Amino acid sequence: MMGLLGNVAEVKRLRYRLMTPEYITVFSELLDSNSDGIEVSYNAAGVLAHIASDGAAAWTIESPSREDVLNRMFQAIERWNLETERNINYRSFEPILGLITCYDTPACQIWAVWALANLTKVKIRK
User: Fold this and answer.
1) Quick one: residue 55, left, alpha or beta (phi over 0 = left, psi -120 to 50 = alpha)?
2) What is the DSSP secondary structure assignment for residue 60, as one 8-state letter?
3) E strand or H helix at 7
4) What tens digit of pLDDT does each residue of 21-77 get?
5) Closest alpha carbon to 119 in 105, 95, 47
């Protein structure tokens, strides 16, 4: 399910629908998940990266704060093993590549670079 929400988060005109305290709280808490290896945490971080990439002005909720969520993203990404084999299928890297140029939000860049490094380093399970 997080993978599907990631697809929604990749579409800029739909992201605002995910910007609710309830959704952001759940996505933020899922950053600590160990379910299915790193898949749930990785996908939650991807959703949050796309949402955060719209900038501070687009973060329309007070809690959880953008700063707290981005810090949790950093912590989650640091825990992931780059060698982890993933069960994922991308038709295009364009949404990930777009996050690399998100210079005002390093957490988005780090998620994107980690994703590309992992996808080019390990064999993808299907």
Assistant:
1) left
2) -
3) helix 2-9
4) 999 999 999 999 988 889 999 999 999 999 999 999 999 999 999 999 999 999 999
5) 95
